[in-house]
Specification:
This protein is 17% helix and 22% strand. By secondary structure, the protein is an alpha+beta fold. The structure holds FE2/S2 (inorganic) cluster.
């Protein structure tokens, strides 16, 4: 199984590559590589600190249920998702993730 390389764009537009594996939860990858401020609720869909914009080429099923409700409360755009609800697979390789949550 090959590594999955993602390009993470921070709030200032800076880019950084992180490496993950299929089956990893995106929030965990971002928390472990970028900031401990990501994933404050531990994936309970209550904090929004894992809010990210996904590369438009990233074909993931749309948000539903509690995730969709929190995204609506946050006023998140079409490409926005909660990183705690995204499980990586090989299709994510070489795609971009933009950090959207403001402290
Ligand atoms: S970690 Fe809190 S909503 Fe995703």
């Amino acid at each position: 199984m090959r590594d999955i390389t993602l390009t993470v764009v921070d709030h200032e537009g800076g880019e950084r590559e992180v490496t993950a594996a299929a089956g990893d939860v995106l929030m965990h990858v971002l928390r472990d590589n970028i900031s401990v401020e990501i994933g404050i609720c531990g994936g309970e869909i209550s904090c929004g600190s894992c809010l990210v914009g996904l590369d438009p080429r990233w074909a993931v099923p749309g948000a539903h249920g509690e995730e969709a409700e929190l995204l609506a409360v946050l006023g998140a755009g079409e490409q926005a998702r909660l990183g705690c609800q995204i499980v990586l697979d090989d299709s994510a390789h070489r795609l971009q993730v933009t950090l959207l949550h403001e402290d």
